[in-house]
Amino acid sequence: MFDYHVHTNFSADSSMHMEKACQAAIAKNIQEIAFTEHLDLFYPNCDLTWNLEYDNYAKEIDTMRAKYGNQLKILKAIEVGLHPSVYQESRQFTNDNQFDFIIGSVHLADDNDLHEGYFFKDKSLQQALEIYFLTINNCVKEYTDFNVLGHLTLIKRYLHYLESHWEDVNWEDYFDIIEDTFKTLIDTSRGIELNMSGFRYNLNCSLPTLPFLQLYRDLGGEIITVGSDAHCESYVGKNIALGYDLLTEAGFQYVTTFEKRQPIFNKL
Ligand SMILES: [Zn+2]
Ligand SMILES: [Zn+2]
Asked: Which end of the chain is more exposed for a tag (fewer CB within 10 A), N or C?
């Protein structure tokens, strides 16, 4: 198994030491782990700094590879938060430094963050979802310097701000925009991520769910990674096996891993 979305204390919202994550991965028979630390150069309404100290990070990866490299493949990776005001700076960062794998994620919509709920103010559920999916569509078209689109439907975590729940939403209403987003990714040799964190946010589902995976597959999508989005040891590798079952159910025969930003297809 491969866990392609893990945050350590090089990310502002995690205090997990990389070594603990490596040990947890080995204990759970994970063969590859990607440390996808945050880089969100524009993040309003938040006191944390979403920067990555690359040199220290790279040094720690080297130390971990020397110590655990014979039991675990360790990937140098990053989760870039996409926003037009920082495209250039973000691109510069990933060009100047070496990564095996890059997730592109949308954590904001309408220039506001989803997490604290500012985005949802004075919006209906339908407006919020439409803006959210259009924001992602724009980002994917404007910014191509990543391998997979992270946690599509992350907005499900925050629908309580509108006193709603993801199960109340008719997601197919947005499939036209999403289809266009998927086609853009496929045409540019990029893919999507199946993020399993929804199972620990009381959503009891993956991000995204099976109908989205089927749509992506039906459009010819092949590049897909699975990640726990763990921020602590106990979640490393969590629900990855379930993610592979979902991929099989959606018609995928392979799960993707990366090396020096090139996809590798592993039989499920
Ligand atoms: Zn994220
Ligand atoms: Zn993440």
From this structure: C
